[in-house]
Every structure is written in C-alpha cells, then in structure tokens.
Design brief:
- The protein is an all-alpha fold and 191 residues long.
- The protein has eight helices and two strands.
- It has one domain: Arp2/3 complex 21 kDa subunit ARPC3 (Orthogonal Bundle), CATH 1.10.1760.20.
- It has a two-stranded antiparallel sheet with strand order 1-2.
C-alpha cells in the first residue's frame, strides 16, 4: 500500500516537473509542453488505476492553487482555459494508456508502452483536449482538432520516448512494472 502511494506521488511530481520544461505557446493559447510525457509514463509504468490516480493527484494540486500547469498556471481558473480539456483529460489518458499495456500482451514491454501511449496519451487525450478547446473557444470540434493537429509529431516522439524508457526499465528493474511482471505468467498474444 505504501509503495503504491509513493509511486503515485512520484509520478504526480514528475508530471508537475515536466511542466517546467521550456515551452512554446501557439497563437490559440495551447502550449507545447512535456507534461503529456509524464501522463504517458504514469499510465505505462503504473498501469491504469495507479496512473490515473497520479494524474488525478496532479490535478487536485492544480485545483488547490499550486502553479503546476505549463506556464505556471494553477487554481480553478486554469480549468476554464483553452487547455482545460487537455488537463482534465490527463487521468483519462493515463488510465487508457495503462489499460492498453495491461490488456494488450506483447513480448516487448517497450512496444506495448509506446502503442499504449499513442492510444491513451494521444488519441484519447486529443479527444478530451479538442472537446475542451471547442467548448471554451466556441469553435467547432473539427476546427479544434485542426488547431491541435500541429502537436501530433511531438506527441508521437513522446510516445516513442515512453516506449524506450519502459523497455529500459523492463530490462533493469522489471519488478517496477507490475503489469509486465504479471503478464509473464499469462499466455501472450502477439500483434
């Protein structure tokens, strides 16, 4: 139990720290940031429930006023910004990434994590982000998706980094990937 709490807190801190990485803000108020890499890693390393809990803890800290979102934003007002859909989608994206790695059995933990990050950290998160951008900005959903499509190449790079880091972790400390350790005793399905 204590280990789970520590891991959740550690990954919430990592998501916050990745918001400090220098960023570029595009004209419509959505910054290019490394925070989504933390969300992808939380789901890929911790699994669905604990990854979502880490992202949820991060959002709780933001709601309490800590300036942890990219650009030093925090407080309830951050959830009314154009990026609110992305921020609120962090726990959903971490859960989806973790769900993917827990249920799609591949020989390579890195490949499972990379594909899970594409599914949860890009596809699911973009649905949340575009929906939020559409609501806040008054743009159509199609216009919102068009505006955020510029982020896809960078997020694909983050998904690849997630896969590489998880693969390295699986080799060095496989016991930290409980979902991967548990899958060793289960018949694996290969893509």
């Amino acid at each position: 139990m204590e280990r789970n709490i520590a891991q959740i807190a550690l990954f919430a801190a990592m998501i916050a720290a990745l918001g400090l990485v220098p960023q570029i803000t595009l004209g419509f108020g959505v910054p290019i940031t490394a925070q989504t890499l933390g969300v992808m890693l939380a789901g890929a390393v911790l699994g669905a429930r604990r990854g979502a809990a880490a992202a949820g803890l991060f959002l709780l800290l933001v709601a309490l006023g800590l300036p942890l979102l990219a650009g030093g934003r925090g407080g309830l007002g951050a959830f009314a910004a154009p990026t609110a859909g992305f921020a609120l989608g962090f726990p959903v994206a971490a859960f989806a990434t973790g769900f993917f790695v827990e249920h799609v059995r591949l020989r390579s933990a890195g490949l499972a994590a990379g594909l899970g990050a594409v599914f949860g950290g890009i596809a699911i998160l973009y649905i949340c982000g575009a929906t939020g951008l559409s609501i806040v900005s008054g743009k159509s959903l199609a216009e919102a998706f068009t505006l955020i499509a510029v982020f896809i190449p960078g997020d694909l790079l983050k998904a690849a980094i997630t896969g590489m880091l998880v693969q390295a972790l699986a080799k060095v400390r496989p016991q930290t990937l409980a979902w991967h350790r548990d899958s060793a005793s289960v018949t694996q399905t290969r893509l």
